[in-house]
């Protein structure tokens, strides 16, 4: 929740919220976190250019990490097979 003292202390002249968010129900909430900026007329909703949210980013990170782990496990297995099958040339 943004307080009047914070707005004054940090000299905030505009508070914005994008159209794409985890939840856009903030105006329906009992304790609207933007009630002070709304009452001051300094709150604006901006059109989000992309549909990326925190959850979207987290899913991408987890997916990429799982793909990395699979690739790495495959490389480790390949190296293990190489070293187990490696023979040395005798200098005799």
Please give a structural write-up.
- This protein has 92 residues and is mostly helical.
- It is 48% helix and 9% strand.
- It contains three helices and two strands; from the N terminus they run H-E-H-E-H.
- It has helices at residues 4-9, 35-40, 54-85, and strands at residues 15-18, 43-46.
- The chain has a two-stranded parallel ribbon.
- Helix 2 (35-40) links the parallel strand 1 and strand 2.
- The radius of gyration is 27 Å and the shape is rod-shaped.
- The mean pLDDT is 89.
Strand order of the largest sheet: 1-2
Please report the distance between the alpha carbons of the first and last residues: 80 Å
Name the assembly state. single chain
Q: How much is the radius of gyration in Å?
A: 27 Å
Q: Would you tell me the overall average pLDDT?
A: 89
Largest sheet: 2 strands, parallel
Shape: rod-shaped
Helix/strand structural class = mainly alpha
């Amino acid at each position: 929740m943004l307080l009047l003292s914070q707005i004054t202390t940090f000299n905030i002249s505009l508070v914005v919220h994008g159209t794409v968010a985890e939840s856009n129900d903030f105006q329906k909430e009992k304790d609207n976190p933007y009630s002070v900026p709304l009452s001051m007329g300094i709150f604006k909703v901006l059109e989000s250019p992309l549909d990326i949210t925190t959850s979207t980013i987290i899913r991408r990170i987890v997916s990429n990490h799982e793909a990395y782990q699979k690739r790495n496990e495959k490389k480790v297995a390949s190296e293990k097979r190489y070293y187990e099958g490696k023979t040395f040339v005798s200098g005799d």
